Amino acid sequence: MLELRHVSENLPEVEAALTRRGFADARLLDRLGSLAQERRSVITGVEALRQERNEASQAMAKVADKKSDEFQAKREQLRSLGDQIKQRESRQGEVEAELESILLHLPNLPHASTPDGLSEDENVELRVWGDKPAFGFDVVDHVEIGTRLGILDFERAAKISGSRFVVLKGLGARLNRALMQFMLDVHGTEHGYEEVWPPVLVKDSAMRGTGQLPKFAKDAFRMAKDAEWEAQAEAQGHDLYLVPTAEVPLTNLHADEILSGADLPVAYTGYTACFRSEAGSYGKDTRGMIRVHQFDKVELVRFCHPERGEAELDLLTHHAESILQKLGLHHRIVQLCAGDMGFAAQKSYDLEVWLPAQNTYREISSCSWFGDFQARRMQARFRPEEKAKPRFLHTLNGSGLAIGRTLVAILEQNQQADGSVLIPEALRPYMAGLERISAG
Fold this sequence. Notes:
The protein is α+β, with helices and mostly antiparallel strands and 440 residues long. 42% of the residues lie in helices and 20% in strands. It has 13 helices and 18 strands. A hairpin with a 7-residue loop joins strand 14 and strand 15 (391-392).
């Protein structure tokens, strides 16, 4: 969430920054500006009335005759001042609630180093790793490969769950599990992340903290409620959602906390199944495992000192990319332009893996630096030194990696003329030494 004071005192600059992102709602910002001005006026008025009430109370206490007209007049004055204060405090609450609602709908401001642009076509390619695999035969996509090998079953998935789900069977399931273990081992052992196994049901406050709510409510799976559940949720004061990514529970581990600056950076990695309704994306990338409602992912989350944010982003991106390198998968790194970044990000790099059947690169990880945008929502802070004033943390995250898309890339980049698929050497210890997946 953006800081109210910064936005209200720098409206032209904020509007220009949001325009870089393709966010153009001058009326909303004008409304924010007028509400911020009214808030200041109301607060000043309340403070003046409280001072007046204190003075009136002291004056009334000095009246000796408690039955006199003077005493009654001063008591009536106190009652009137109290009513005025309540009215203005009520209005202050209404104004602040509307201000918070507006701020919750404003995306983060792009960092100065984020390039201009409004679509993925304007992202900047930074580097390419490895060579595109060459084939002496006509390549096929992962759907055909997996179906022929008997490791992917989309028909039975549709029977039990509907469209855009997949059942992984046999060596497909084992390969999926091997990727999860491999990624967690690398990030935990080599990169120093603490492994966490978090819940996949989270409160709406956690979704709000990382920016999924209220902006992406239509993409989230909210728990359906009957009357009994509704009453229980109302008593508890929160809804529950299936996580769209482990970013949500891992980042919210430090909501409403003050960390010691000496403990920074803090780094977590964790696996979760992820759930997204992908509202509005029907007809786009719906074949196979590229865009499904349930998928597996290993996440990387870092908390750091504000002055370390950009360096931490480079480090996190390197950690995510190392998985692709160890697996020998051809890929590239692009920096996202302002208009293609996620809602909460201020600077992002995408790792895009090559899919030969599509003859294109596809995102497999998005590594982002959020500044204090998420931390402000979560009230996640740190104390630079003992007894120093707390400051907001900077948060970062990235996929390390999306397991399903990694599996897709292995099937397509490592496909052989006989229909088999070579297993990357790094994964063979997790596959009982198996070198390839073959039919039968």
